[in-house]
Design goal:
This protein has 444 residues and is mainly beta.
């Protein structure tokens, strides 16, 4: 303890000595006069820091450029329906894009100075499904890209086309036989289409198994389709253009149990009336109407006759005509350009069976170029069967009720012929077609 007290006493003595010396120096400094004003240079007083270069550098780092013009793609196959089209484009750069503006307008023939209405829509992706369009119509599309820096230049324009409207099958003009059918339809579109497709489904084929056969690339509004005999087909038609196929038409039914045709109104004499189904011709007591249409080159003007529609398939065709025993009539075939001012059978372009009745006598003639063989028919037919055989160049007539062969023409037929019918007195005749040939007919 004594040692410690001695050490502390020595340190206190040393500290007091140092403090007295420091107080003497401070007293001397305070007694001395000193100029404490600090002179400053004007340059330092007016100088301020310039951060513009730094700000410009930071701005260049954070600013993005305006996008470059997008490139719109050509229309892809099957990319459209009748009311919509899928439009695609690309951006060949690393530009930042926040959205796109897609604009379009219909392409139509218009007078100079008349602009078509334009439509614009904003999208985020590089594709867009545009809806509520008109079928089978061309539309002009262009696109711009935009971000917070601005809007890009517009792309080049591209023409897209909507798919066509479904065709309309002319059911009443369908003709068929055991090997084929001629299908006719209306386009259903104001603008031309590229082609048509006929789809066939057999009646025995389940709907789930789809189309039995398709005929593609048809350029016109009709097609002759090869079919299997003794079958029933459901037929659809589609129209196609660059945008894709249309929806299916309404279905039509075709039977290949025999030849099927209708009476052609365009060839009908004004005194004849054709039924709605096109299978009955009626001549009334009144010969003329108050407003009888003027004669045309396609209509019969002297002979009160009508043609059936053309059967454009070489092979064997059979149909039957139901008549009254006291009816004056003519039935047979003729070329399309048969003279309409002459009676059937009086020229080289028609082959016919004619019946005239003057009580109590029935007279039957088989006429071609005014020539007829001397043939007697003892049993008057009420239903006449007609067999047209292109391959063997024959035209045969039968009494259906008693399975009797009446007469056969041997005739050269370099072109297709039409069934033809005439009524010399008031009455009616009815056609039965689309029926199988009876056994007694197959031998001729």
């Amino acid at each position: 303890m004594e040692t410690i007290e001695e050490m502390c006493h020595e340190e206190k003595v040393d500290f007091i000595k140092d403090a007295v010396a420091m107080a003497d120096r401070l007293r001397k400094f305070l007694e001395t006069k000193t100029d404490v004003d600090i002179s400053t240079q004007p340059a330092l007083e007016d100088q301020s820091l310039d951060f513009s270069d730094v700000e410009q550098l930071l701005g260049s780092i954070n600013t993005i450029p305006v996008p470059s013009a997008p490139v719109i793609n050509p229309q892809a196959p099957n990319s459209a329906t009748g009311s919509s089209v899928r439009v695609c484009w690309s951006l060949y750069s690393d530009d930042t894009v926040e959205s796109y503006q897609l604009s379009y307008r219909p392409v139509r023939d218009s007078s100079p100075g008349k602009d078509q209405a334009e439509f614009t829509m904003t999208v985020k992706e590089t594709y867009c499904l545009v809806i509520n369009l008109v079928p089978n119509t061309q539309y002009e599309f262009w696109v711009t890209a935009q971000n917070r820096a601005g809007v890009s230049p517009a792309s080049e324009c591209a023409v897209y086309m909507t798919a066509p409207s479904p065709p309309i099958i002319k059911s009443k003009e369908i003709r068929s036989c055991e090997e084929a059918a001629l299908i006719c339809w209306e386009s259903g579109n104001l603008n031309p289409v590229d082609s048509y497709t006929v789809e066939l489904i057999q009646a025995e084929t389940p709907e789930a198994s789809g189309v039995t056969e398709s005929v593609v690339g048809i350029p016109t509004c009709e097609a002759l389709v090869q079919l299997q005999p003794q079958q029933t087909y459901t037929i659809y038609v589609r129209a196609l253009n660059v945008g894709g196929p249309s929806a299916r038409s309404e279905p039509a039914t075709v039977h290949t149990t025999g030849s099927y045709f209708r009476l052609n109104q365009h060839t009908c004499h004004p005194w004849l009336t054709i039924s709605e189904d096109g299978l009955t011709a009626v001549r009334s007591e009144r010969k003329t109407s108050a407003r009888e249409p003027p004669p045309r080159s396609t209509r019969f003007s002297r002979c009160v006759a009508v043609m059936g529609t053309l059967i454009p398939v070489r092979g064997r065709h059979y149909w039957e005509v139901e008549v009254d025993e006291r009816l004056d009539y003519t039935v047979g075939v003729s070329f399309e350009d048969v003279p309409k001012q002459e009676d059937l059978g009086t020229n080289s372009l028609s082959w016919c069976m004619r019946h005239t009745w003057a009580s109590p006598r029935h007279k039957y003639e088989f006429l071609h170029n005014k020539m007829t063989p001397d043939i007697r028919i003892t049993v008057s037919p009420r239903k006449i069967g007609i067999l047209l055989d292109y391959e063997n160049s024959k035209l045969s007539f039968f009494n259906v009720d008693i399975s009797q062969h009446l007469y056969t023409f041997t005739c050269q037929l370099p072109q297709f012929v039409h069934p033809c019918f005439s009524l010399e007195k008031p009455g009616c005749l009815k056609i039965h077609n689309g029926i199988s040939m009876p056994k007694h007919v197959t031998f001729y």
